[in-house]
Design a protein that fits this description.
CATH superfamily of the largest domain: MetI-like
Largest sheet: none
Oligomer: single chain
Radius of gyration: 25 Å
Distance between the termini: 13 Å
Shape: globular
CATH class of the largest domain: Mainly Alpha
Number of domains: 2
Order of helices and strands: HHHHHHHHHHHHH
Structural class: mainly alpha
Number of strands: 0
């Protein structure tokens, strides 16, 4: 077998192992919770069915236990849990019962993907571009001011920044947050327009806060590279500033791809706080809803999607990194 094919198969197996370990930990934690979601659901349904006889309530309890996969011994629950999640069957939601968790997530996932891919790419591009400019610019006051601004703002927790941004937008700018609209049956262009309009506010908040990490890391890398021998040699040859910037950017951008791909892998958890504050119908607001309502299956479904997203992103990163960085080779090359 070719060494590259062997390497890809090995990394793919490691990805599956990561997903399995994550699912196992999720199963253990979920079965250690102090409450049983099936009992909670039965008690709630019983309040709306006061006329049911005890045997009917017991039959309803058994049906709900089967739906939640809690009626079997623990080892059978574990096997069914793994099989169901690998097949995409995550059971019914407690909050939206009897709708399946997979259907709920599939309806919200495109919104989070649309928002967070935009956010990750825009923040990455802006931060890296400004980082190279700050490292190579001769206007030291401007670059120092930008660096102090980023270093002063980045330690602020994102939760506080998002709330402050919302207050500024609503109270000072007198802006309004777009409400939900009926999407079913509309043309795809109109749906994209609505999605973009609803994503502007959370996108702006996340980009303002998100570019700083890329900026600081890129500036640090570019500062080290600009004194390397190959850059000094280019300067002695009289290379223009644009060429120098390209040399530095091409070598400093490679480590930044790691952050970009891993951040794209986190789209499955969404930006819970931002989506909740700005009423954006993505995975993040689903996660908040599931926590507030103790929605056992929905929480597990979102956690599972997050595990898969990060594992797949790491797998893609391992495969494409030797292509991005010529200094790295596949094993056996």
């Amino acid at each position: 077998m070719h060494p590259v094919a062997r390497y890809i198969i090995k990394r793919f197996g490691r990805m599956l192992l990561t997903i399995w370990i994550g699912l196992t930990i999720t199963f253990i934690v979920s079965r250690s919770l102090p409450f049983n979601p099936a009992d909670v659901l039965v008690s709630r349904l019983a309040t709306f069915a006061l006329q049911l006889r005890p045997e009917e309530l017991e039959r309803m309890r058994r049906i709900i236990y089967d739906l939640f996969g809690l009626g079997d011994p623990v080892h059978l629950q574990y096997i069914k849990f793994l099989y169901g999640y690998f097949m995409g069957e995550m059971g019914p939601s407690f909050t939206y019962f009897p709708v399946k968790v997979s259907e709920i997530i599939s309806a919200s996932l495109p919104w989070s993907i649309f928002l967070l891919i935009q956010t990750s790419i825009v923040s990455w591009l802006i931060g890296n571009f400004l980082g190279v400019i700050a490292a190579l610019s001769k206007h030291r006051r401007f670059t120092k001011g930008m660096e102090y601004f980023a270093m002063g703002l980045q330690p602020i927790p994102f939760a506080i920044f998002a709330i402050a941004y919302l207050i500024f937008y609503v109270v000072i700018l007198k802006g309004s947050i777009p409400a939900g609209e009926v999407m079913r049956g509309k043309p795809i262009i109109e749906i994209m327009s609505i999605a973009f309009r609803r994503s502007i506010l959370p996108l702006t908040a996340m980009v303002i806060w998100g570019w700083m990490g890329n900026f600081l890391s890129m500036k640090s890398l570019a500062m080290k590279l600009k004194n390397e021998d190959f850059v000094e040699y280019a300067k002695l040859r009289g290379a223009p500033q644009r060429t120098i910037m390209w040399y530095v950017t091409r070598n400093a951008i490679t480590p930044q791809f790691t952050y970009l791909l891993l951040s794209l892998g986190m789209i499955f958890t969404g930006a819970a706080l931002v989506e909740y504050l700005f009423s954006y119908p993505g995975i993040g607001i689903l996660l908040v809803t599931s926590v507030l309502n103790a929605d056992y299956n929905l929480m597990l479904g979102i956690v599972y999607m997050s595990i898969v997203g990060v594992a797949v992103a790491a797998f893609i990163l391992d495969i494409v990194y030797p292509i991005i960085d010529p200094r790295i080779r596949y094993p056996g090359q």
